[in-house]
What does this fold into?
Amino acid sequence: MTRPGGTWRNWGRSASVRPMRVERPRSPEGIQRAVKAAAAQGLTVKAVGAGHSFTGIAVAPGVLLELDDLQGLVSADAATGRVTLLAGTRLHRVPGLLRRHGLAMENLGDIDRQSIAGAISTGTHGTGTGFGGIATQVRGLTLVTADGEFLRIDETQNSELLHGAVVGLGALGVVVEVTLQCVPAFVLHAVDAPVPLDDVLPRIHERADAADHLEFYWHPHTAVALMKTQTRLPESTRRHPVPAVQGWIDETVLANGVFGAFCAISRVVPAIIPPFNRLAVQLTGRGEYTDASHRVLIHHRNVRFREMEYALPAEHLVPAFEELQRLIVDRGWRIEFPVEVRFAASDDLWLSTASGRDSAYIAVHRYWRADPREYFDAVEQIMLRHGGRPHWGKLHSLSADQLRERYPRFDDFVALRDRLDPQRLFGNRHLERILGA
Ligand SMILES: Cc1cc2nc3c(=O)[nH]c(=O)nc-3n(C[C@H](O)[C@H](O)[C@H](O)COP(=O)(O)OP(=O)(O)OC[C@H]3O[C@@H](n4cnc5c(N)ncnc54)[C@H](O)[C@@H]3O)c2cc1C
It folds into this structure.
């Protein structure tokens, strides 16, 4: 919560602002009033979610709208799987809201701290060659636009705007409600295992296509991929969750406690990074368990980091990944955080990073106290040569002209923005850079 007169900061501590005013509307009409008042005073206005974007996309120098009092279920239909959520609803609350309807979200990212509106606005995704990002689950949304009016966009009302408005970058208006197509609740059987990279890379697409969900982490300075492979099963399947003590050791002690201490020490003694990474792949990344989908897909990330992630045409994954490996060796860098590789099916949302092409994602991270620029800049050049598109919520250096070349519907989106927000009431400096003034 941002105190009046206080400073708002994002999770990665890579963006901050002292807004002129912070408002916490309690109803859709409260959002309308806030938008109209900001417009009348000549202030910009912007909704923020959980502040989990690494870029300045959520920075609100004028009126900052916190939607934490706008959480919960508006409606749910177990027969059709259609569910409408208030825009501020945090993803971690969704399983509890859907339980009695026997439903689940079709796919999720790595964490569940984000708001549903924030997650779809930047194209948040998980993994699975047969599945799109969270935005592909959207069947409708309601916006408050710059004129302070509600605009419903779904398959029957203003349907021509739906594919443009879902990954809306916070640039089109304030999302008030989101309607999702959910699926019957399901269980995932998970196998986590280290596999030599030399075995993984030549057959990665075969492996990814054979699994419902597949991703891997590569700790630089090792020759191992920590593979995570998950199979979807009916909800009635007998569950074998990770035992509580084991889960605590894996997530709290190793993945966060020990890893956090290692990251802090590695700032002063970078020489410990390669041996620590080799130890990490020997001690972690093994397991087999079966549990509710969200329990398997979601992780807890307490060690702060900064991240850049690029979506590539799937067939570019291996050459780009190999260039990244060579880069780290050639430059003699010591990189403490793993590289993450995921997949998504092609979709038809204008600004989805997987728009129009089956995609593979390569994400690089640095501890938040380390300067990521040299590493990220060099990795970005590789990703750009391979036709990459940056994640809208993660660090990158592209401007509107470079992004335009990468999205066939970019100018349609800009035209939609011109129509819905001609005065840039929802603008900020980051949007000016990536979309133009
Ligand atoms: C630890 C961590 C793990 C992550 N894991 C993943 C992952 O697995 N996959 C992935 O793809 N991404 C991941 N991300 C990125 C993250 O999912 C996105 O940046 C997401 O947008 C954050 O959601 P948020 O609710 O925090 O939104 P914010 O960052 O607060 O806002 C994002 C954008 O949404 C807009 N917005 C928010 N609410 C509204 C609204 N009501 N109306 C209009 N616009 C709105 C904001 O103005 C801004 O433009 C991760 C980030 C972190 C820090």
